[in-house]
């Protein structure tokens, strides 16, 4: 009840002020133009802020995508290198195990002979 009375009093004073001749002649159009200019200015500022944040988000997504691509490429290279070294390790492990098997020394010497070219004189010490 008290709220409605206050609201009516405020409405009456505002309507009286807006209906006064002084307001209509001098302040009405100027106030409306000034208010529209302020609204347009505020709208422009918010539009600029929205565009700035949108550009920031787009640039951030592009950078994130590029760094993810670089990271995946590096991980692929590391994986390929690891698999190659693992293969070499398995081959060398098998050769080392064959060395200690029966007649492994003879097989080792055969492998060594294949490395030496045929034009070189070989000296075998016993």
Short description:
The chain is 87% helix and 0% strand. With 126 residues, it is an all-alpha fold.
List strands and helices in order, with pairings.
Blueprint: H1 2-19, H2 21-99, H3 104-115
The main pleated sheet reads as: none
Shape: rod-shaped
Separation of the first and last Cα atoms: 122 Å
Order of helices and strands: HHH
Secondary structure: helix percent: over 70%
The averaged pLDDT comes out at 78
Output the structural class.
mainly alpha
| Total number of strands | 0
Count of all domains = 1
Radius of gyration: 45 Å
Secondary structure tally, helices: 3
**What ranges have pLDDT less than 50 throughout 5 or more consecutive residues?**
5-10
Strand content: under 5%
Explain this structure to me?
- With 126 residues, the protein is mainly α.
- It has 3 helices and no strands.
- Helix 2 packs across helix 3.
- It is rod-shaped and about 130 Å long.
- The model is unreliable at 5-10 (pLDDT under 50).
């Amino acid at each position: 009840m008290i709220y409605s009375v206050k609201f009516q009093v405020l409405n009456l004073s505002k309507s009286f002020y807006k209906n006064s001749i002084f307001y209509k002649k001098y302040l009405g159009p100027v106030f409306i133009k000034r208010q529209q200019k302020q609204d347009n200015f505020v709208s422009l500022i918010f539009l600029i802020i929205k565009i700035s944040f949108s550009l920031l988000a787009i640039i951030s997504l592009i950078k994130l995508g590029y760094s993810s691509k670089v990271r995946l490429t590096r991980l692929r290279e590391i994986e390929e290198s690891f698999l190659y070294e693992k293969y070499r390790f398995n081959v060398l492990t098998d050769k080392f195990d064959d060395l200690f098997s029966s007649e492994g020394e003879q097989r080792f010497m055969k492998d060594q002979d294949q490395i030496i070219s045929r034009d070189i004189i070989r000296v075998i010490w016993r």
